[in-house]
């Protein structure tokens, strides 16, 4: 499942788009100051100003500082160590070397502190690595410091306080200011994209009216528990298969990894997982799930599962946009179980964000990069669309590039809303998946029979529901893997070199794909709240938040088989230059041989049969969006899904 950033979500915008973001500040910055590019809120063009913010109103913000030498210098190092054919290929730096070379200097930090303090703001914290400065104060102090008026606005159902245009900084330090967050008080909470059960919300079970272990082992002629006889669908001459009960971890490992040697299990490699908050039952749930399926539990003696937690958690309530800890527990559990299933001997280290906003996730990335123990980082969250508030993209990219310099690969789910047209009105890609320095993992609908993948197509689903004995269309587009072309982020060179023909010269998404369709989804196990009490149970789930950890776990196998001793590398760095240079180890997803549709059976209340059943038909790879599968790279599944050939190279 894909999370959704709303309100103040992060994304880069072009200079032309930034110019349209809002009116010029009433008190224009003096000539001794410079604008901070893309720092105006992205929603200004449709927001309504409701008055000037009170001078005494409180302000809390963070100023992110540029890497020493600038983004270009950091990008050059990250690309050089990650690109095949480079003289520096796989000559990664240590975290200490990255800090020494790219942390903001003490002189820069002092100059920024002096500027902010001189405007009457209080510097409340300074990152030990010089990557940011936290400030508190008033609107009067912020207006003086950033040379831009701050006003009250109404937008997207919110009443907020925000700058009226781009921020400014003294010319002596402006080039060292990467981004500023917090002056715009719009809600920017991040949540798992599809509701997952938790101990604080109703649990979920799938009825055992489904196919197992293979796709299509049962069809709609099977007797339904309430005696319903399912009619044929659209004059079909053959009964449709029933949805799988949920592919298990061992099934998925064998299907994607094939006949790899038993020693290709991720041993010696660490996969990081980033979500918000921390489930108290995640390890016990993951161990029970694994051992029930005859996989090994985590080895506690060697710390195979570990966690990096912040000093405190902060649950934020912003009305309709809530940041609820327990809502993240299902995502964390799914991610851990998927990675462990694909790489049973790999270490899994969970890095919890302190809260569900940009600052919390960026702090988690900083811990990952400074520790330098993870080879690949799995992220099953992101934003619908990538066209708002651009300066924070640079803060995210700094984290991705710092990681790449050490050898760390960042992986993101591409989203669950297809091309986003049903949400945003026009096709768009999601961020951070659309960032050029991460690997975007899209989604497939997948048939597994006899332990092998027998057919795959892109995940784009149409839904019909049985109503009064008749199949009735209830969703022309139900859900689907994110993909398409960014309208704000340029196409990276590795895609141009690979011959990807972006129609608008934008970053093309996704790069690869894995199982994501919840109708052919993964079986997971989790402690949940049921009417009879809190207990462990299993359910089938999907979304590209399944695809991302499956790919991250498989990548641990590739790192293990990379042939480099552990003392000279953490991992592989940026994955995309490698993938686009040689994608022969991926299975091209074309839809050939895939069933047209399936029948799915659900409980009305999601828990048991007391309220009855719901019967639906889910059509695979519907053509109701702009995304299409075809031979070669496509905007629905990228280069395709992992096979043993890529993992052994």
Automatic annotation (TrEMBL):
This is S53 family peptidase. SMART domains: Pro-kuma_activ. The keyword Metal-binding applies. Its cofactor is Ca(2+). Its EC number is 3.4.-.-. Residues 1-28 form the signal peptide. It is an enzyme of class 3 (hydrolase). Keywords: Calcium, Hydrolase, Metal-binding, Protease, Serine protease, Signal, Zymogen. InterPro entries: Peptidase_S8/S53_dom_sf, Peptidase_S8_Ser-AS, S53_propep, Sedolisin_dom, Tripeptidyl-peptidase_I. Gene3D superfamilies: Peptidase S8/S53 domain (3.40.50.200). Residues 246-649 form the Peptidase S53 domain. PANTHER family: PROTEASE S8 TRIPEPTIDYL PEPTIDASE I CLN2, TRIPEPTIDYL-PEPTIDASE 1. One of its GO terms (molecular function) is hydrolase activity. Pfam families: Pro-kuma_activ. It comes from the Bacteria. The keyword Calcium applies.
């Amino acid at each position: 499942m894909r999370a959704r950033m709303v309100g103040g979500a992060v994304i880069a915008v072009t200079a032309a788009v930034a110019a349209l973001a809002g009116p010029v500040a009433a008190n224009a910055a003096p000539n001794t100051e410079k604008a901070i590019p893309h720092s105006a809120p992205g929603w200004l063009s449709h927001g309504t100003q409701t008055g000037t913010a009170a001078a005494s109103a409180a302000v809390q913000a963070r100023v992110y500082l540029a890497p020493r030498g600038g983004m270009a210098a950091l990008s050059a190092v990250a690309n050089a160590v990650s690109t095949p054919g480079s003289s520096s290929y796989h000559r990664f730096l240590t975290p200490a070397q990255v800090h020494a070379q790219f942390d903001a200097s003490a002189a820069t930090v002092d100059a920024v502190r002096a500027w902010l303090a001189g405007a009457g703001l209080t510097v409340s914290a300074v990152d030990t690595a010089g990557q940011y400065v936290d400030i508190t104060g008033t609107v009067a102090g912020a207006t003086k410091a950033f040379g831009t008026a701050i006003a009250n606005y109404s937008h997207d159902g919110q009443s907020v306080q925000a700058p009226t245009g781009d921020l400014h900084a003294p010319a002596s330090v402006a080039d060292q200011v990467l981004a500023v967050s917090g002056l715009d008080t719009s809600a920017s909470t991040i949540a798992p994209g599809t509701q997952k059960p938790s101990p604080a919300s109703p649990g979920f079970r799938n009825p055992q009216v489904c196919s197992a272990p293979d796709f299509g082992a049962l069809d709609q002629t099977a007797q339904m528990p309430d005696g319903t006889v399912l009619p044929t669908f659209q004059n079909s001459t053959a009964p449709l298969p029933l949805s799988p009960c949920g592919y298990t971890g061992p099934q998925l490992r064998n299907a994607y990894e094939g006949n790899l040697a038993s020693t290709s299990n991720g041993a010696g490699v660490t996969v990081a997982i980033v979500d918000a908050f921390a489930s108290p039952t995640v390890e016990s749930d993951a161990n029970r799930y694994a051992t029930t399926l005859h996989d090994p539990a985590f080895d506690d003696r060697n710390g195979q599962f570990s966690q990096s937690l912040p000093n405190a958690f902060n649950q934020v309530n912003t009305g309709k946009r809530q940041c609820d800890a327990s809502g993240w527990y299902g995502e964390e559990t799914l991610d851990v179980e998927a990675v462990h299933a694909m790489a049973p001997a790999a270490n899994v280290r969970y890095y919890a964000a302190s809260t569900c906003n940009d600052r919390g996730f960026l702090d988690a990335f900083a811990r990952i990069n400074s520790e330098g123990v993870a080879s690949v980082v799995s992220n099953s969250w992101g934003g619908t669309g990538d066209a708002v508030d651009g300066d924070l993209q640079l803060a995210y990219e700094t984290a991705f590039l710092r990681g790449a310099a050490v050898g760390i690969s960042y992986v993101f789910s591409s989203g669950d809303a297809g091309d986003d047209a049903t949400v945003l009105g026009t096709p768009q890609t999601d961020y951070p998946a659309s960032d050029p320095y991460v690997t975007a993992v899209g989604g497939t609908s997948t048939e597994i029979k006899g332990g092998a993948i027998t057919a795959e197509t892109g995940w784009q689903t149409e839904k019909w529901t049985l109503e009064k004995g008749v199949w009735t269309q209830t969703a022309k587009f139900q859900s689907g893997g994110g993909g398409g072309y960014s309208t704000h982020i340029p196409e990276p060179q590795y895609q141009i070199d690979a011959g990807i023909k972006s129609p608008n010269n934008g970053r093309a998404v996704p790069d690869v794909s894995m199982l994501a369709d919840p109708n052919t989804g993964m079986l997971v196990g989790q402690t949940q709240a049921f009417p009879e009490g809190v207990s462990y149970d299993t359910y089938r789930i999907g979304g590209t938040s399944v695809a991302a950890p499956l790919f991250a776990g498989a990548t641990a196998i590739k790192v293990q088989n990379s042939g480099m001793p552990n003392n000279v590398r953490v991992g592989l760095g940026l994955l995309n230059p490698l993938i686009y240079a040689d994608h022969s180890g991926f299975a091209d997803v074309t839809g050939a041989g895939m069933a047209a549709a399936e029948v799915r059976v659900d409980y009305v209340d999601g828990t048991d049969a007391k309220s009855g059943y719901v019967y639906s038909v889910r059509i695979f790879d519907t053509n109701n969006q702009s995304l299409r599968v075809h031979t070669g790279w496509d905007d629905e599944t990228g280069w395709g899904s992992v096979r043993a050939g890529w993992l052994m190279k």
